[in-house]
Write a structure and sequence with these properties.
Elements: H1 2-14, E1 23-27, E2 33-36, H2 41-53, E3 56-60, H3 66-77, E4 81-84, E5 88-92, E6 105-106, H4 111-121, E7 127-131, H5 142-150, E8 154-157, E9 166-169, E10 175-179, H6 185-195, E11 202-206, H7 213-225, E12 230-232, E13 236-239, E14 251-253, H8 258-271, E15 276-279, H9 290-297, E16 301-305, E17 310-314, E18 322-324, H10 332-341, E19 345-349, H11 361-371, E20 375-378, E21 382-386, E22 396-398, H12 403-413, E23 420-423, H13 435-441, E24 445-448
Parallel strand pairs: 2-15, 3-14, 6-7, 10-11, 18-19, 22-23
Antiparallel strand pairs: 1-23, 1-24, 3-5, 4-5, 7-9, 8-9, 11-13, 12-13, 15-17, 16-17, 19-21, 20-21
Length: 449
Amino acid sequence: MESDRNAHTGILMSSPHNHTHMDVHVSPSTVTGQVQAPPSKSYTHRAILAAGYADGATVRDPLVSADTEATMGAVEAYGGSVDRGEDAIDVTGFDGRPAVPDDVIDCANSGTTMRLVTATAALADGITVLTGDDSLRSRPQGPLLDAIEQLDGRAESTRANGQAPLVVDGPVDGGTVSIPGDVSSQYITALLMAGAITEAGIEIDLETELKSAPYVDITIEVLDAFGVDVESTADGFAVAGGQTYDPEGGEYAVPGDFSSMSYLLATGALAAPEGLTVTGARPSAQGDSAIVDVLERMGANIEWDRDAGEITVSQSALSGVEVSVADTPDLLPTISVLGAVADGDTRIVDCEHVRYKETDRVAAMAEELTAMGASVTEEQGVLTIHGDDTDLSGAVVDGRADHRIVMSLAVAGLVADGETTVRGGEHVDVSFPDFFDVVESIGASVHRD
């Protein structure tokens, strides 16, 4: 997933409290009240850049993090300005005509920023140089550089290895590009966003099947909100040129992040007899909103007021189900914890690719839940949790330096007998820095050392 790739190599190091190891002790507790889900990083990046392409726009409820600040910096480098308020960012855009930056654009550790704004550079009438930190300068950009060359722009890696620093010379006026679909959906996103304001538009022919398709759906959804139309073609996508970025009412509200929300919803289903309301749950193209469907299928008492963007869930007797995580790999840790508390077997299928995230999340959840007393069968592509043979009890478990493992084990600790200690709690910084403050605020017994 996108957020994970950015986090994979660098955010852990750049975060101020990450040099210290943190153990989190969780005891059985009940929760109630209302919590706000953190905003989606993927939507925030796209919305900030879309507002830059516009004459201007207000981005409401953005996720402000090191990565999205890199995108704000790029918008300013291309001649826009960004004014950050309490819960909104006011962007004065460069209105479809990016200026040649005064200086090198530093994308820090944000791979999403670099890919999205490299295509912007191809629209400027002159030369742009883009770089980033050590980790970012080791990541591949070749297919995007090749695509810009196909549009008659100049795009090269200073070290000729397909990695940043990148040098881009425009302007391009559109055309057709052929690009592999299985390397990064962010190349597609970058070209669609820039293509809308070229003269001729851009047609993208995918040479291979598109991986991470939900991310392109997110891009199309954000573009639609900004009044920009993208079409699917037999071979890929096309965006007509000469379009204008102009969101309705001059603003765009970023939806909450459903991967992060999944831990809060699971907390409600396991430990909120009086109910827990999660706000910021606007419907969106995020694959991980499937967690609501999974909870419904398991028998949870859950209601989603889509207009208000609120989901209310209360403690329920859950039953095991079979769930495919082919398109929602980030939900595996959450679902496996729900399965440990549910009656019967919960089978998580199509999960082999979940072994190649920050850590092998299939093995990690199998081993750590087993340490807490769960009965688990692990196969290469299937994880089965035998709820009937499981009584969770507190244990010392290892979060594997992986934000998603840490949060899901902490949720399990709320309903395990005795105290659970999750090692490496600081790693929640990657996607949900105040996770432990949030669960404490609704009544969870959590202490950190």
